[in-house]
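If it is no trouble, might I ask you for a protein's amino acid sequence along with its backbone structure tokens?
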Amino acid sequence: MQKHAGAFAQRGVRLVAIGQGTGAEATAMAEKLSLEFPCLGDPQHEGYRALGLGSSSWWGLTAAPFLEDPKTAFRNLRQADLVASASPRSDVKQLGGVLIVGRGGKVAYLYRSATTTDLPETAELLAAADGLVA
């Protein structure tokens, strides 16, 4: 998302990431990744539950990614923050997603990840953002 932040800003969209840790842990992660948008914490996973974001199986978390796309799986493993994943607030099986909220708090777009690395294409997100201003 970071490399496309300008394209979202041009559309009047503000990016915000939400992680499983505390606010301080999320801020530290944003600084570590040099993110130009805020990172908020959800240590109780309330937002994940409210959006119906599921959990991966152990198979889907460990073996399946290496069988489906070994190159990407190894890259993701190298980039993983293993210290953060050991936090008592972290659930390594927690699946993420993408939410776009329009004016008035109306959900304009919701994508629920099917795997831990599953995210929509940027073009799809930009199209959804375009729909907010159309």
